[in-house]
Amino acid sequence: MAHDDDTQALDRAYQPSPGLGVAVSDPAQNPGLPHHRERMTDKDPKAEKAAVRTVYTLFYLSLAGSIWAVAAYMLFPIESGALIDIRYNNLFIGLGIALALLAIGLGAIHWSKALMSDKEFIEYRHPTRGRDSTRAASLKAFADANEESGFGRRVMIRNSMIAAVVASIVPGVTLFRGLAPFSTEEDPEAGDPVALLKQTMWDKGVKLVRDPDGTPIRAADVTLGSAVHVIPEGLNELGHEGGLLEEKAKAIVLLMRLRPEQLIESDDRKDWSYDGIVAYSKVCTHVGCPVALYEQQTHHLLCPCHQSQFDVTEHAKVIFGPAARPLPQLPIMVDDEGYLVAQSDFHEPVGPSFWERH
Fold it and tell me: Which positions fall inside the Rieske domain (predicted)?
């Protein structure tokens, strides 16, 4: 009986209050398309012509930006090493490329908003079938798009856009040419990347000095577990005009000290280290990033760009990542005064592995 009373109370609680009705509306109706408001370029032929001039002027401005980027590359050669050339090279090439890409974007947006058809339409979904009628409809869709955009009949806009897009690629192609200098009659190997990367400033008796202050390094001062950034003695004296940046990019070295018993050395390299001290090129053999992250406990070197890892205990062999070969090892020894010096140059080219190597 108590259960029936509770049920009746719940029923009363959920009954609508007197005077409150529940309205049942009809299904939502399609409101249709909003009222179309014509643009000035649709109503005024002068405004349309002005918009056309604006669009192809922007495309020609993009073309001028691409040409200027190439000209700046030639006017301010970064290979000269002069600080003013390096600054202006980066500044003016960047401004030229930025202008080229920005003008293409603005021109395309203005074209679509001011000149292309802006009439709203509904495209109903239907099953896709490969019949002749479907193909004909597809061709008609391309023809309609061409008519609405004006691509086929607006010759100035079309040609200027094509010229701007093609020219925007030229600065990038031009910059790639600077990756290696030209060969000359005096130096036929100047354009050969293998020859360029095989010879560095390291030679027999060249002292290992700290980067960047150039302080010579005594073997006794290299502590266990340390990693020292090293350059060859005399590098800083070259200056920018003498090719300091180019030589440093090839000759940078990382010096580490382990316990001698931790080193796993092949017979032909046992004398390349000194009392657990080893020296390896800092230039990653993947794409040339500086390998400068040393983990003392695992004795691993990490390249921060693409996470290649090298095992310092075993000739810096690759243990992880996209690098294709170990880091080149610099043979070292100690002179009569206790300073670390090179036994010779690297025995192989430094840097990335994608060039042919002999």
Answer: 250-341
